[in-house]
Design goal:
Blueprint lengths: L2 E3 L6 E3 L12 H35 L7 H26 L1
Antiparallel strand pairs: 1-2
Helix pairs in contact: 1-2
This protein binds zinc ion.
The site of zinc ion has 8 residues, from loops.
């Protein structure tokens, strides 16, 4: 059983507790929601990047020169990277 510190009052208690027994701060649940959001954001960023690379590949291999898959691919990769970095930065801040 690991002991963790309450971010509000600094009391030590079990990591299994959902809220602080001293100040009733529901930090554990909050952290779980934050961790879930970060994972969701990272997954979203990665899917944007994967989609971007697929579009890039399709755009480069397309026979039609008017195909704008390459531009969509670049935009998707930039959006994906910015989402990814934003959520990775948030994760660093929490830790
Ligand atoms: Zn507390």
């Amino acid at each position: 059983m690991a002991l963790i510190k309450c971010p509000k009052c600094g009391a030590d208690f079990s990591s299994f507790a959902e809220k602080c027994p001293k100040c009733a701060s529901p930090f554990e649940k909050l952290n779980k929601i934050k961790a879930g959001l970060i994972r969701l954001g990272i997954a979203l960023g990665i899917s944007f990047i994967v989609f971007g690379f697929v579009e890039l590949f399709l755009g480069m291999t397309a026979k039609d020169p008017m195909d704008f898959n390459i531009e969509i691919g670049f935009i998707a990769i930039v959006i994906g990277l910015s989402i990814l970095f934003k959520f990775l930065w948030t994760m660093k801040k929490i830790k």
